[in-house]
Design goal:
The structure is a homodimer. Chain A is of the alpha/beta class. Chain A has a domain at 13-156 and 341-368 and 400-447: nicotinate phosphoribosyltransferase (Alpha-Beta Barrel), CATH 3.20.140. Helices cover 40% and strands 17% of the residues of chain A. Chain A contains 18 helices and 19 strands. In chain A, the strands form four sheets. In chain A, strands 13-12-1-5-3-17-18 form a seven-stranded antiparallel beta sheet. In chain A, strand 6 (173-175), helix 8 (183-196) and strand 7 (201-202) form a beta-alpha-beta unit. In chain A, helix 7 crosses helix 8, helix 8 packs across helix 9 and helix 12 (253-267) packs parallel to helix 13. In chain A, 57% of the residues are buried. The interface between A and B is large, with 141 and 141 residues.
């Protein structure tokens, strides 16, 4: 089913002619208002020293043993283009809170900072930096909303999709999510994230064009309904698309299968239908009986493709029960990551003007300074991670790599989707199997903080306390 | 707190100069591949008769007593602009499944159909048409993915937001969601949906510009952290923005409140700070003690604004406990509608070439033909809905109104956000109070199908069966 209905084609010319990031132009104002009021304050206070912001997920959501980092190249492409247009500045002027001096300063304002990050398709865990931004404070502050939104989106969706792909155990999964993802951006970038996570193709044509993802599709109930009867619809569609997938459940699934068999008998050698699709009812039992009837009619080559409200758990059950299913179409549950649609992601100031920074708010600790994650491996299996200070010499493979300098993506930065997809597959294969599994892992994957970083956190905490209490409020 | 930090301004010039729909240009390919393969089949089979498609939600998700219809004008604006560019057609040609004849036909292909719909901001229930599309079959088929995606997005988010607003019982709610909504489109259109549902303002500057929604914001922990101490940060920020909101929980919430009080003593008449924001810890207890200290310092005018992982349940508890809170900033739980991120929405062929259509798939019934919803009222309270045939004369107010003809929005169609917002508030006020409540209502709001529509459904079912079985498959 890798080419499940013949309409699955790798786009080349169309997609490469298109810069996917141009569609995200005009995003300078895609920021929370407070970022801009703080920017003006930094401008007035001349606070332009270098800041380090770290993006990380505080806790894994219930039902996730790991996350799959995703969305980096999308973000970097946006950072390269980000600037305030004259219209943007006119709108800000209309708000009445920004000075002409500040608005003139914004005219040449760009993101010229550096970014180091975990490559897309890398499994990550709680508190591990997904990326670190090193830039003058105003630049690093400005991009907060965009960084969080874009990495969150694709990481949420890739982390869900990898579970669906795992559950399908090698059978192709097709993304049917576009109709219920949260908007257009999520549908397009979701298709990208799904593909990196191992999903074979997408039904979303614009995503196919924009990202060069294989597109595929079958037929809808409406096509069958609009014809006088199912047989007429099957014949017309297969006449135009001989190697198509026929949807058999509009009126009665097994009756539909019988009609496909009758068509095969009638058409003999001209019959090229690749598969039938089941979209409702007891999919396991129906697939069994459909397979039996197809095989009895000597149609072993006709595959069975199923869809209809599938989650990774439903797929795992079908696979475990030995249902003769050759591929899965998965829509809503993957498209909105319905069991864990959000991550406790944070973008936090960790250093300013060369000094470690943190906050002391309840339950929301920050690891100060620039960091690195070291992933250790034992006999081909990842055995644990250590979050350390950048430059620390610890065993294991460092995960964070430089990807952007002076606001430009570095030449070595991976931008090719196939490379990311291969990287993801290879990295996931190295996870301990309970972590890769869709059931909750106990114990979870071990992540430690290095003694040096822990010590640094304590030192900075003490410094922050001292500096803070150097100015005591009077007792009320 | 309607103007919670002085930065909340109604955008006028900037927003009105901007057509929000232009940003969604290039969406002809935002469709599932099968829509286009079916389109080519309709083209080859000359199936251009009029089709009726109905958009509805099959079941309300757990935790929803009603939905708030939203996203219509966004969609209609897109339908007016939708067309295949030369690049779109070149991409389709590259897929190898489309004939030159068909691709030439697409050149002039537009949506020229009619739409009737429930106005935005109207409460709706299961199986009630949100909209009906009447158009030549290919046109109505083409737009399926876009119609579903866009109405689903804003209806999901508005239906969540209205619960948050209800829970806040008149205290303003500010949208802080942009950083964790699913992508840029969801953040922008989400802000629109939230505002229609009663949310006071958004932190999202681009949404403010695009839709003319009031924008507001306070300050972030990073601003405090980047300063030597909290007092220095408070003084600098309040110097630039005298009527600001100061974030007090970076190091210790009540210590932060004491610093604000000290600043007030020091600045005397120059002190204009409007509010403090609490973002972590036991918000109810902290708000109580903060209020006590502020009042003791004769700072009754300084309001208390809270945020940090708030859901409608958390807000309802704070309100019920009498916490002295003047406004709520709500992010993720509203931004992704985390408890119900998707709806069982469907866009189904209900009529073709003048004949009612449906399918017989398990658990997925369709009400055939064109329909109307009649909402009955008793002593100022909505008492129940009847879904009937279009043209039926039933008691109650008809909900579906014509909004587009020949692919153009009708002059009377409401496009003004304030009007929609007022409509929503007024309509929600007429719901029975158990339905308006955030707890599950038992019994649910009564929705019936009229005897005539039920009869018609049975007649069409019988016709479909007869037509279908006129061509019997041979027994295998």
């Amino acid at each position: 089913m890798a080419q499940e209905d013949g309409r699955q084609v790798k786009a080349t010319g169309g997609a490469s002619a298109l810069n996917p990031h141009l569609h995200d132009d005009g995003l300078a104002l895609f920021t929370d208002l407070y970022e801009l009021t703080m920017l003006q304050a930094y401008f007035e206070e001349a606070m332009h020293e270098t800041a380090v912001f770290t993006l990380f997920v505080r806790r894994l959501p219930k039902g996730r043993n790991f996350l799959l980092a995703c969305g980096l190249d999308t973000l970097l492409g946006q950072l390269e283009y980000l600037q305030f247009s004259a219209d943007d500045r006119a709108y800000l002027a209309s708000l009445g809170s920004f000075s002409d001096r500040f608005l003139r300063w914004l005219e040449d304002f760009r993101f010229n900072g550096s970014v180091s990050a975990v490559p897309e398709g890398t499994p990550v865990f709680e508190n591990e930096p997904l990326l670190e931004v090193v830039a003058p404070l105003p630049e690093a502050q400005w991009i907060e909303t965009l960084v969080m939104n874009q990495i969150h989106l694709q990481t949420v969706l890739a982390s869900k999709a990898v579970r669906v792909v795992q559950a399908a155990r090698g059978r192709p999964v097709v993304d049917f999510g576009a109709r219920r993802t949260h908007g257009i951006d999520a549908a397009l970038k979701g298709a990208r994230a799904f593909h990196i996570a191992g999903v074979a193709s997408t039904s979303n044509v614009l995503a196919g064009r924009r990202y060069g993802i294989p597109v595929s599709g079958t037929m809808a109930h409406s096509y069958i309904q609009a014809h006088d009867n199912e047989t007429a619809a099957f014949e017309a569609f297969a006449h135009l698309y001989p190697d198509t997938v026929l949807l058999v459940d509009t009126y009665d699934t097994l009756d539909g299968v019988d009609r496909v068999i009758a068509m095969a008998r009638h058409q003999r050698a001209a019959f090229k239908v690749r598969a039938v699709r089941l979209d409702s009812g007891d999919l396991g039992a129906l697939a069994q009986e459909a397979r039996r009837r197809l095989d009895a009619a000597n149609l072993q080559q006709v595959e069975i493709f199923v869809s209809g409200g599938l989650s990774e758990q439903a797929i795992a059950q079908l696979v475990a029960a030995g249902a003769p299913i050759d591929g899965f179409g998965v829509g809503t549950s993957m498209g909105v990551a319905s069991d864990a649609p959000d991550l406790d992601i944070a973008y936090k100031l960790a250093e300013y003007a060369g000094e470690g920074r943190l906050k002391l708010s309840t339950g929301k600790p920050i690891l100060p300074g620039r960091k690195q994650v070291f992933r250790q491996q034992h006999e081909g299996v990842f055995s644990g991670d250590v979050i350390g200070c950048l430059g620390e010499d610890l065993p294991g493979r460092p995960l964070l790599v430089p990807v952007m300098e002076q606001g430009r993506r570095l030449p070595g930065h991976v931008r090719d989707l196939d490379t990311m997809r291969n990287h993801a597959r290879e990295q996931i294969a190295h996870l301990p199997s309970p972590i890769r599994n869709i059931d909750p892992a106990d114990p979870p994957y071990p992540v430690r903080v290095s003694p040096r970083l822990r010590q640094y956190q304590e030192t900075v905490t003490e410094q922050v306390r001292l500096r803070h209490h150097a100015v005591e409020p009077p007792k009320v």
